[in-house]
Amino acid sequence: MYLKQIILTDFRNYQKQKLDFSPAVNVLIGKNAQGKTNLLEAIFVLAMAKSHRTSKDKELIRFKQEAARLEGTINRRLGDLKLELILSKKGKIAKVNHLERPKLSEYIGQLNVILFAPEDLALVKGAPQERRRFIDMEFSQIDPLYLHDLSQYKQVLRQRNKYLKALQLKQANDLVYLDILTEQLANLGGKVIAKRLIYLKRLETYAKDLHAQITQGKEQLTLRYKTNLKDLGTQTENDLATNLLAKFQQLRQKELSQGTSLAGPHRDDLSFYLNDNNVQTYGSQGQQRTTALSVKLAEIELMHEQTGEYPVLLLDDVLSELDGQRQTHLLKTIQDKVQTFLTTPGLNDIAQQLIKEPKIFHVNNGKISTDDENTLQVEIFYPHKDEKDESTKN
Fold it and tell me: Which residues bind ATP per the record (predicted)?
């Protein structure tokens, strides 16, 4: 799988832009605030129908415009595929081969992407919600049913939390309705946890091998799913739902007192261990970064295993955060395997030696030019005249 072409209309600072890409490595070189990350974000949004940088779609629409449009041509094993996503203040319109998909679960997964940015190096040490976001984002792309169950779970969770808050404030008193919501949430939660356990086990297999290669066999990486349910390895989806329902009953008085749901996949976490030592607690910064790198690279293999296609890899200025050994391992792993988009202020000696025939895009002051001297104009909107005047002086 690779992205052949993208067309952006009124997305971020792009007024109208059409770009054709290499199926191998595409390198975007330029100083900060030139639009490199905006292009990677556009590819991510085209795939996931949401941004990794903001939860507000209106921030993706060019200033004073009503809507943003992204169009992409994807090459897959069975032929080319056309994707179109329109973002407006009224909502989203998603199309596959010009046919509108009313459910985003029918759209997401057509283009699979893995984003690796400097903040992802904090995957190990960061907050639990970052790891949950990581899990859900990747598994939703490889399994539409997981995305559906997760969406349903979040919807019922919002309803249940709202009703718990009403009970806490004495604005409601129907505990039977709470029981109905609790049973629905437990059933959906059991489905989500069951799939997480399956895919995390497969992810661990690939991550363990990659980590052993990076550390020359000195460290063994394992992943452990953290939840307040017990005996996860022996439980079926129905067992997990029953277990979760019992946990809700156990926590009922506490939930009524606090007005929120205190158990379920929305509160679970992921732990990383090296030679049975918790990396989050006892690992060095180097070990934590190597663990994050191993896990992110393992996603590539998991997606290929589950979908039969390699994903598109987005590397947003990540080379500058890795030492020479980790840069080498990253670039060797992706070489001749996945289409890659790499943003960087400039390629260092290691990258130049390891990347074979990249397509180079120079991003500077609102213009993108390739090394073959074909210049592609990027129309940048300047909200203030002085900004445009200033940029022309450089």
Answer: 30-37
Instruction: State the Cα–Cα distance between residues 227 and 94, nearest whole angstrom.
Output: 35
Give the range of the structural domain holding residue 274, as residue numbers without chain letter. 120-308
Sheet of strand 277-278, all strands in order from the earlier edge strand to the far edge: 221-226, 269-274, 277-278
Total structural domains in the chain?
Answer: 2
Please tell me whether 126 is known to bind a ligand: no
CA distance 107 to 264: 27
Dihedral over alpha carbons 44, 48, 49, 53 (to 10 degrees)? -50
Interval 195-237: pLDDT, tens = 999 999 999 999 999 999 988 899 999 999 999 887 777 789 9
pTM of the model: 0.85
The answer on whether 222 is annotated among ligand-binding residues is: no
d(CA 107, CA 6): 17
Rg of the chain taking only CA atoms, in angstroms? 23
Structure tokens at 172: 């409601």
The CATH number that applies at residue 278 is 1.20.1050.90
The beta strands (E) that lie in the chain are given as: 2-11, 14-20, 25-29, 67-76, 79-88, 91-96, 99-100, 113-116, 221-226, 269-274, 277-278, 312-316, 340-344, 359-364, 367-370, 375-377
37 annotated ligand-binding residue: yes
Is 35 annotated as ligand-binding?
A: yes
**205 among annotated binding-site residues:** no
